[in-house]
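Reply to dn_fold:

You asked what the input looked like. This is it:
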Amino acid sequence: MLKLRLGEAPGDIPSQVDVRRSAAPPATSLDGGAIDRLIRHYANGARITRVHSAAASLGNMGKAHQKFDEHEELCGMSRMFRLDMDRGSPIERLVASLSEVPIVESACPNYVTQTPFQTAVANLPRSISEEEAWETRDLVFASEAMAYEPGDPTVIVGIVDSGVAPHHPEMSRRFRSGFDSVQLGARDFATGVTLLGDIATADTKPIDKFVGHGMGCSGIIGAIGNGMPPGLAGECSLLPIRVLGAAKFPGKTEAVGLGAVSDIDMGMKMAVDLGAKVLNMSFGTADSSLEPGMPKPHGDVVQYALSRGCVLVAASGNSGKEEIYWPAAYDGVIAVGAVAADGKPTPFSTRGSHVALSASGARVVTCALEGYQLATGTSFAAPFVTAAAALLVSRGQRRSYALGSEDVRRLLTDTATPWPNKETVGYGSGILNAVAALAALDREVDSSPPAEAELDAPDIADN
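and this is what came back:
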């Protein structure tokens, strides 16, 4: 992945979207100078595409690389390129050399992240009771919150994950069309890693047939409630964005999700451009796994989403350590830890000063690709907070009160159920209390002064 400095990016490099749908061929030259010479020296050439499309040109076949606006330019969306080279090319040496070129702002390998981010997923046992199914919801006051605010269908929740099973009975007519940004190929991985599904043709439908991670998150946010508790986001709309492909590792039977940073970034921007107001990001990369000096993943697209007024929620991680995962650790992202049904932090929940609050994340009843599952991990704590954020945005719209990302974070953290033990640190301000956040918003609206226009309105009687 190569990012050029502001004003240095050529305008004719096609976007990945157009190359995938055969509307344009990839470029073979970037600058006609030092960059191209280095690519030829280390890798015998490259296939070059723009990672992102311009929001104003999404429907313009073959021209998605045109009409980037000021936000997209400043956040680097128009200046980020993906270079695909032959297997065996010395990527690290190329990255080091490219980083020395004056017009290059950053260069880094296109890292691959792995999920499921959960620690355990199991088929739902038939013996589980309705009381047990509601236990994790009661902890965050889900039923009270849904009775308080039903959610607004115009509020779109982007689920950036492994894709969904759109015909699941719990999700009937719940999903918007969405998008699939996965572009993994067998040559991207070591021998023995088996990619699942059709990887020979481009497909933009966000359908998951192997992993089920995205469906677990989707059920918590938006299930109808036929065979499980309903999703906390109520009537809010769901936008599935598939950024993680499916694969099996040698000696393993369970499929996992794998996603290249460029594919994840592309999917996140697409979610924003398709109207998502709240994004659930149950994935992450440990800072310790990155090469020293390399750019942190997802930084530019996080800033882009925040500049567009989006609320970003991310799982803190499942390492059980005090450490940083990206994108959870970025300023402006609401990082979520996990608690068990007894309200105590789970031993696997990654902690740190960047964690905003925690939510239910152990043995959560939710959707599987078929039927239901018991899901455990911060991956499934984050969707509770995402759903609560969507309800807050819905409530704000209902009351003609604009909420920014920081407003949502403040309401959620200020009203969280505090930890009974003061020594509980690193897991945020407390446990999500969705109804208390909604009530706090109403109090804030009721106590706000009249709009300036009202204060300055002329007295008709005096005229």
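The mean pLDDT is 92.
Hope that clears it up.
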